[in-house]
Write a structure and sequence with these properties.
Blueprint: E1 4-9, H1 19-34, E2 39-42, H2 53-66, E3 72-74, E4 94-96, E5 103-107, E6 110-115, H3 123-127, E7 137-142, E8 144-145, E9 155-156, E10 164-165, H4 167-173, E11 176-180, E12 184-185, E13 189-192, E14 195-199, E15 215-222, E16 226-234, E17 239-247, H5 252-265, E18 271-281, H6 285-307, E19 322-325, E20 328-329, H7 337-353, H8 359-377
Parallel strand pairs: 1-2, 2-3, 3-4, 6-7, 7-11, 8-10, 11-14, 17-18, 18-19, 18-20
Antiparallel strand pairs: 1-15, 5-6, 9-12, 13-14, 15-16
Length: 378
């Protein structure tokens, strides 16, 4: 048997008014050419809405056919489940995993088991009774993995629109599970020897919830052996990066300065920094926003001068961070000495408690205390 190289992606959510997403698809195929991939695999949600398939299909078909004779494997997701009917044309080299509950196709000497997104069903139900040879099989599905190891598969997806996927069901059927639906997360890949269960994530940011560089997964698979190698390859597209500082009442200026330092530390090509100020404040929200916006702008200008224009002006990283204010403001207590005294006493108790007092507990105690004081004075 010979090695087969696969470029895995999903969740492009193409739509006519978002040219950046079509550009991301171009970069996916460009990567496939550069890495001499044998096939491209798109694990669901190629289109953002059902109505987007009609105006976007010709552009998609053109790109798929340029990749010919190498195949492009497509699986329906929850956003585009009805865009793969018998009258749709994605090119002669397109392989559609559209049958429900389970599609079975042989591509490049590999058996693909495709489980399109299906309302109200689990992946296990769809795979029931399907015989496979795991070392020869790749499972492709669009849904939410429910039972990864602690710290694994912590992903961002759309609330409510999912098909539960359980790890045991995947590992019984194939040695490589290519999943779609999670756009990003702390850990979307699990590799155990020749076995791989992985989300590639979305190759383009579709919301501010999707943090971190965008990219594709390149997987080398050999029938009868399983996964030989895998690599997440970042793509040159803009992405969101978030920094967060918790504000303490009475130390608003110091918190904003810390936020500026952390935001500048994350300044890098293609990164749009989201600078979030959370916690508790005694200043008004309007005052906090004005002060932080000015401070971030000045910090960004100083950083640009220091790096000598290393980041081009048209790169999202060149623009100042997006300020996100999520503090709880008790500005009506700002002139009340009792408020400052209350905060000071809670912090003193926390210091006396040493390592047992977490910052979250201190924040909660201060918020409860200030809320009670506000209620008494009302």
């Amino acid at each position: 048997m010979t090695r087969v190289r696969i470029v895995q992606t999903s969740d492009l959510h193409l739509r006519p008014d978002r040219e950046d997403r079509l550009r991301a698809l171009d970069l996916v195929f460009q990567l496939a050419h550069e890495r001499t991939a044998d096939l491209v695999l798109i694990a669901g949600d190629l289109f953002d809405r059902s109505i987007d398939g009609v105006p976007m299909r010709a552009a998609v078909r053109e790109r798929i056919e340029r990749f010919a004779p190498r195949p492009v494997v497509l699986l329906p997701g929850n956003h585009d489940a009805d865009q793969y009917g018998p009258d749709t044309d994605y090119g002669e080299n397109a392989v559609l995993l559209t049958e429900t509950p389970l599609a079975r196709k042989h591509v490049c000497g590999i058996e693909f088991l495709g489980v399109p997104w299906q309302q109200g069903r689990t992946l296990g139900e769809c795979l029931t009774g399907a015989p496979t040879e795991p070392r020869h099989t790749i499972v492709v599905a669009h849904g939410s993995l429910q039972d990864g190891l602690p710290g694994s598969f912590v992903g961002d997806n759309e609330d409510g629109a999912y098909m539960p996927v359980f790890l045991a069901d995947l590992l019984r059927r194939g040695s490589y599970a290519a999943l779609g639906h999670f756009h990003s997360g702390r850990s979307l890949i699990r590799r155990d020897g020749a076995t791989l269960v992985a989300y590639a994530g979305s190759p383009v940011s579709t919301s501010r919830r999707e943090i971190g560089p965008r990219g594709c997964l390149v997987v080398d698979f050999e029938p009868s052996v399983g996964v030989l190698d895998h690599e997440f390859v970042p793509l040159p597209v803009s992405f969101y990066d978030r920094v967060e500082v918790e504000c303490m009442p009475g130390r608003e200026q110091a918190s904003i300065e810390a936020l500026c330092r952390e935001a500048v530390a994350q300044r890098r090509p293609f990164a749009q920094v989201l600078a979030r100020l959370s916690g508790i404040a005694l200043e008004t929200e309007a005052a906090l926003r004005e002060t932080a916006t000015i401070a971030l702008q000045r910090a960004w200008e100083r950083a640009a001068e220091a790096d000598g224009g290393a980041i081009p002006a048209d790169d999202p990283a060149a623009s100042r961070p997006v300020f996100e204010l999520v503090t709880k403001s008790f500005s009506t207590l700002s002139e009340l000495p009792l408020a400052a005294e209350l905060v000071e006493k809670i912090e003193a108790c926390a210091r006396a408690d040493g390592e047992n007092a977490s910052p979250a507990v201190v924040q909660a105690a201060i918020q409860l205390g200030l809320s009670a004081l506000l209620e008494v004075l009302a």
